[in-house]
Amino acid sequence: MKSDKNSRGALLQRYLSLLEISRDLSSVLDLDVLLHRIVNAAAAVTGSTAASILLYDESKHELYFQASTNLDTPLMKGLIVPVEGSIAGAIVTQREPLIVQNTREDPRHFAGIGKSTQFETESLLGVPLLAKDKVVGVLEALNKREVDFTDDDQTLLLALGSQAAIAIENARLFQQSDLIAEMVHEIRTPLASINTATHLLLHKNLDGQQRSRMAETIQRETQRLSELATTFLDLARLESGRNQFKIEPVEIPAVLDDARQVMSARMEEQRLALVWLVEEAVPIVQGDTDKLKQVALNLISNAIKYNSKNGSITIGCGHDKEKVYFYVEDTGRGMLPEHIDSLFEKFYRIPGSETVAEGTGLGLSICKKIVEAHGGSIEVKSTLGKGTRFTVKLPRGPIPE
Fold first, then answer.
1. How many CA atoms lie within 13 A of 126 on its CB side?
2. Residue 5 pLDDT > 60, yes or no?
3. pLDDT one-digit tens code per residue, 12-38
4. Is the per-residue pLDDT at 63 higher than 80?
């Protein structure tokens, strides 16, 4: 009898804890923060070793790994879990919770994530995340401590999942509205230029030279809109976690050499000298070659755009006991310290820089997200009138767990 009272008391305490958690979730609008709070709550209320969230992309009919209590490596975000041939997929398809006490004996168990994260799932409780009859994803509690998963665990996780699904949708809407508002604000200027140029082209009194200038304006602003749309989509994918990283051994000197070759014609056009200080014997890093090349290209492109006449660009690479680093340095106009803090904000451009070169104001924000997803950092040092150096530092060897 006393044991039953203790059991009921413990269950009541878990429900009270869940109530507090639900209140907390409703106030969080940062999607990454929200997802980590959900998985931590799922592990706590079910007494599990770990918990994870997989989000569902209905248009592609795919599940992608998004957050876990036992893994803080953003590179794992976006890894695809097949809907057909996985326990999570069965939960999405059936829209019902599922308890698997021994995953080794279940043919639906997908071991791909476990191999990537070095985490072995022995038992699993999963519930669908449903919002307005729409499947948002799957919330999983993994490896129940000491005993098997129970019906009470399932009821608690279902209750948490119900609140979590609504919170995720709210955070997504907030994130999308924020990005869309910024996007709309940024496209107004090129659209206004195109509209004005088009209106003037229709004027009969324009001579051939004037018409040519108007056509060039339309072409330039259309290209600007295209670049803005591309970078905006890159940023949206990175922020939503839908952007997949192809993890492989990466040789940073080779990445920098590829980027140098791509940008060499532009450097020659601007009559910029190249100083190459790239060490060849640099340890590999684990990451996405194309994404890291994207970072290098963006930094070199900025060094070209904001450099002084007949200046130089230094590209260097080296390593220490923990990090592999590379840097891009220009001899351009530099910047004030108060501008450095805002450099990586979306759409931020240093006042007056628009007269020097065009840009979307998204490139550095994307670079920062890519570098941080690799467990690294990006630093800036600048002296007004002398130049700027961007340094990227990445963990050497295997990705730390």
1. 26
2. no
3. 667 667 777 777 787 787 888 888 899
4. yes
Report residue 48: phi and psi, to 5°.
Answer: -105, 160
Give the H or E element holding residue 117.
Answer: helix 112-117
| Nearest CA-CA partner of 271 in 313, 329, 315, 310 | 310
Give the Cα-Cα-Cα angle 76, 77, 78 (nearest 5 degrees): 110
Which tokens belong to 17?
Answer: 């804890």
Q: Which residues lie below 8 Å from residue 120, measured CB to CB, with a gap of 6+?
A: 114
- Contacts for 168 with CB less than 8 Å, ≥ 6 apart: 31, 34, 35, 38, 55, 129, 131, 136, 137
Q: What band does 401 get if pLDDT is binned at 50, 70 and 90?
A: very low
**pLDDT for position 232:** 74
* Sign, Cα dihedral of 292, 293, 298, 301: positive
- State the pLDDT at residue 346: 77
Q: What letter does residue 271 receive in the DSSP assignment?
A: T
Instruction: Decide: 315 and 328 in contact? Cβ < 8 Å.
Output: yes
Residues in CB range of 89: below 8 A, 6 or more apart: 63, 81, 82, 83, 108, 110
209-267 pLDDT, tens per residue? Answer: 888 888 888 888 888 787 777 777 777 777 666 667 788 899 999 999 999 999 999 99
Q: Coil, strand, or helix at residue 97?
A: coil
The SS3 of residue 136 is strand
* CB burial of residue 71 (10 Å; 0-12, 13-18, 19+): buried
Compute φ and ψ for 63, nearest 5 degrees. -105, 140
CA 30, 350, 273, 327 torsion-angle sign: negative
**Closest residue by Cα to residue 392 from 312, 305, 329, 313:** 329
